[in-house]
């Protein structure tokens, strides 16, 4: 039996509170990661738990038919405004509003840990065509880089980071527990890492931290203090001002598997 996610409903619902900031600040995985997850020449793809559509926006140039399913009304509104011609529907990984065998790929970006995998795995398999691809990615600030880890560690336990470097193997274990079982409708998982840098500023980086659930749910005064400390620490670390540009490393930890 797959292990359900330890995530709480309050944390899962927190992102809608900052939907506009989420849509503006959260970067999509890099092109190489998206290409690696997708099968060759897909005709229809589902972005599941699509959030504000950062990844969804990169799919129409690759796929003729793009569907986006997102449970949060506020996030879905930002997505629909961003992509007015897209098929954007309410739904969850446990109840996907698409017909059986209707897509060639399902992509999940930084959301698998919110799913009830006992229900989500067969539901994802249901909407995939035989041989279709399931791609899963966590895209985050790369704490494997020494100076990034020193900066993040200086912020304490509520630093807003989605995962220290040591958590990525545990995510692999989470996926294998859910997908590599004797009764699984999916083949063995493949894994790849992709890295890039994005041009940003200390002020914008702190604002990005403010879109992670652990930070969103902090008391307002504590949240503001944390984000101010993040700016100051980053400026001191790099020797630059709050609005000076620098290259922030990102890491896309990426998996794929095929529907049997």
Instruction: For the largest sheet, list the strands in their spatial order.
Output: 3-2-1-4-5-7-6
By CATH's scheme, which homologous superfamily of the domain at 9-142 and 163-196 and 251-258 applies?
Vaccinia Virus protein VP39
Describe the main β-sheet briefly. 7 strands, mixed
CATH architecture name of the domain at 9-142 and 163-196 and 251-258: 3-Layer(aba) Sandwich
Alpha carbon gyration radius: 18 Å
Number of helices: 10
Please, what is the average pLDDT?
Answer: 91
CATH class of the domain at 9-142 and 163-196 and 251-258: Alpha Beta
Explain how this protein is built.
Helix content is 35%, strand content 22%. The N terminus is likely disordered. The chain starts with 8 loop residues before the first helix and ends with a strand. It has a seven-stranded mixed β-sheet with strand order 3-2-1-4-5-7-6. The radius of gyration is 18 Å and the shape is globular. The chain has a domain of 176 residues: 3-Layer(aba) Sandwich (Rossmann fold). By secondary structure, it is an alpha/beta fold.
